[in-house]
Amino acid sequence: MTEVQKNPKIVGVKSTDFKVMTADGAYTWFGEGGGMILFFYDTLEPEIKEDGSVDVKLVKRTFPIEIRLNPALYKDVISWMSSQVKAFEDSQKPKKSEKK
Question: Dihedrals φ, ψ of 70, to 5°?
Answer without folding.
Answer: -70, 160
